[in-house]
Amino acid sequence: MVENSTLVLFGAKGNLARVKLIPGLFHLDESGQLPEGMKILSVGRQSSTKDEWENEIKQMLDKKFKSGYCKETFKRFVARNLYHANLPDDPEAFKKFGRKLNDKNVFSQNFAFFLSVRPTDFALIVDQLANESLLDQSTGWKRVLIEKPFGTNLESAINLQKSISKHLNEEQIYRIDHYLGKSALQNILVTRFANSILEPIWNSNYIDHIQITNHEMLGVGDRTVFYDATGALRDMIQSHLLQMMALTTMEQPKSFSPNDIRAEKIKLLESIRPIDTDEFDTHAFRAQYAAGEIKGEGRVDGYLNELESKGSVTETYAAVKIFIDNPRWNGVPIYLRTAKRLHESGTNISVKFKNADTLIGDKNNWIIFNIQPKESTSIEITTKTPGLNDDELRSTRLEGLNRVEGDESIDAYETLMLDLISGNQSRFLHVDEVKAQWRFVDPIINYWTQKKEKLDQYVSGSSDPESSKVIFEDPSQFWR
Ligand SMILES: NC(=O)c1ccc[n+]([C@@H]2O[C@H](COP(=O)([O-])OP(=O)(O)OC[C@H]3O[C@@H](n4cnc5c(N)ncnc54)[C@H](OP(=O)(O)O)[C@@H]3O)[C@@H](O)[C@H]2O)c1
């Protein structure tokens, strides 16, 4: 059973809290996962009375659970959920907040602070918590969850780390990448290490290359300002896709303890070969979506038309080639790609096997982990087409669903909030992982920033741009 604690949610009136965190906490409460005495202190920068906040929670839940929810749980949930206004013009705001939280009769002194605020506020809030002695562990454990992104490049990540580590040790810091809370990603380690059929062939002797893909049909929508300052490489590859790669390629940890799992991921990410300065154009590719047709949406605008600045060189498509310098993966290219406004949406890890050294010609063998929307594992093998022609071969797909009707459905954020209050860091990033990820991505961003030339365009609703194939190591390779 999880120890009693107080979850303090900063940014409770923000988008993430409304859409994911508060409904997620409700769902955890409904399924009996929250300790009985646990309080949730929601902190926002606007005032709300108790009744107003209760009504806001109701609206969030009505929106999320359209088919209804348990009224008894609702009563229990609002009883444990208190609101505190941290008014920006009140210099005493944090003092008042500290005094409130120190009331042991109301709040367990084990504090889990979830900072669902803008990245520029992370360090400031940690300083303010420390000033009020709210991070002092002599009265109970204190943990701080930092939302993504942790820095916008290596330098800013190091600075943020320097700032928060004045008050917190590594065991207290929970850096989120919410993909790690997805059950389909947790399944990768189990599939790899609980089945003896994969491990012997999971190496450069048998694997030709790996493709890790995240494609969306959605465009940038109303997030143009955020997106234009970020781009596809920073938004998706810097953390989500590199983490997927780490889980797919890391060595088996000594144990499945959080420290051992993270130690292996760190080793893997630190073994990424840096790209040579004259190789950027064959190791990284970027493009932008142009106007086109999207199924279900009809005609859509191109990225540059959606922006006020028509000269933007921010990519909405990014693909990179990675080599891992260790004995297992020597010479195996790993392709990471992500895009908006493609003809289909989906996240998967596709592992292509080498052609067997036999008399039968061209073969196409894959193992695919589908992460979303479907959660499944498939194997594609070459088989003979029934009939008289012995030379006619085809690809046969064996697919096993990892999620079937009736399976429990837990949102990634729910898993991670439960991890936070239970003290399990295995699905959170160690600072060394974050640094290794920026170390790989930064030089590409810098190269692209200096280049400033007009980007390749791809028609919205199409598949990968033809020119993205420039990063393939071998002409026989193709995007799945
Ligand atoms: N939304 C998503 O789906 C998503 C996905 C991945 C990561 N994230 C990350 O999650 C974080 C939150 O995202 P968001 O979309 O929810 O942002 P948001 O809508 O801007 O919400 C942030 C909230 O934090 C409040 N805030 C700032 N300082 C505060 C303080 N000292 N005390 C209490 N509240 C404070 C802000 O209040 P004011 O409005 O008064 O300033 C605002 O309501 C960001 O770091 C983002 O990068 C979000």
Describe the structure.
The protein has 13 helices and 17 strands. With 480 residues, it is of the alpha/beta class. The protein folds into two domains: 6-147, NAD(P)-binding Rossmann-like Domain (Rossmann fold, 3-Layer(aba) Sandwich), CATH 3.40.50.720; 180-411 and 432-471, Dihydrodipicolinate Reductase, domain 2 (2-Layer Sandwich), CATH 3.30.360.10. Strand 9 and strand 10 (298-300) form a beta hairpin. Helix 1 (15-30) crosses helix 12, helix 8 (224-249) crosses helix 9 and helix 9 packs parallel to helix 13 (431-451). The longest helix has 26 residues, at 224-249. It is globular, with a radius of gyration of 24 Å. The chain binds NADP nicotinamide-adenine-dinucleotide phosphate.
Structure annotation, total helices? 13
The CATH topology label of the largest domain is Dihydrodipicolinate Reductase, domain 2
Ligand catalogue: NADP nicotinamide-adenine-dinucleotide phosphate
Could you state the oligomeric state of the chains shown?
A: single chain
Q: How many structural units, i.e. domains?
A: 2
Q: Identify the strand order in the major beta sheet.
A: 16-15-14-13-7-12-11-8-17
Secondary-structure element pattern, one letter each = EHEHHEHEHEHEHEHHHEEEHEEEEEEHHE
Structural class category: alpha/beta
Kindly provide the name of the CATH class of the largest domain.
Alpha Beta
